[in-house]
C-alpha cells in the first residue's frame, strides 16, 4: 500500500465526519453565513500557515499552496476592512507540527480540502453569484490547475515516504482533520 493509499484509507472516517458536520448547504445559503464560513477558514489557515511555514520541507512549494491571501481577498470583497480581518480569531490550539513529515501530513488534509473547494466554488457561484473576484477566490484557488497541483503534491508525499516518516504523516493528517473539524464546525 502506498502512502497515498494509506492516507486515504486511514483518514476516511475523519474525512467523512467533517464533511457531514460542515453542513455546507446551510453555510453557503446566504452571504452572511458564507462570510462566517470564510472567517473560520481564515482563522484555520492563518494559524496553520504560520506554524507550518517554520518547518515546511520546501518553502517555495509550501508557499505556493498558502490560502490566507485568497481568504483576505474574499473577506474584503464581502465587506470586511483590513483592520477587521487582522482582528479575526485564529485557530487555537493547533496540532503540533514538529517536523517536515508532520507538515506534509497536515498538508494532505489542506490540499485535499482544496479539491473539494472546486465543487463548493460552483455551488457558491450558483447560490450567491460570487466568483474569484467577488468573494470566491479561496474555493477557486488553483482554478484549472487543481488536478496538476494535487498530482504534484501526491508526488511530493511519495518522495518523502519512508517507514519512519509515514506514521508521522498519517498521524498528523488525522490530527489535522480533528482540529479542522473542531474549528470549522464550532458555531461561529
Automatic annotation (TrEMBL):
<dbReference type="InterPro" id="IPR016053">
    <property type="entry name" value="Haem_Oase-like"/>
</dbReference>
<dbReference type="GO" id="GO:0004392">
    <property type="term" value="F:heme oxygenase (decyclizing) activity"/>
</dbReference>
<protein>
    <recommendedName>
        <fullName>Heme oxygenase</fullName>
    </recommendedName>
</protein>
<dbReference type="InterPro" id="IPR016084">
    <property type="entry name" value="Haem_Oase-like_multi-hlx"/>
</dbReference>
<dbReference type="Pfam" id="PF01126">
    <property type="entry name" value="Heme_oxygenase"/>
</dbReference>
<dbReference type="GO" id="GO:0006788">
    <property type="term" value="P:heme oxidation"/>
</dbReference>
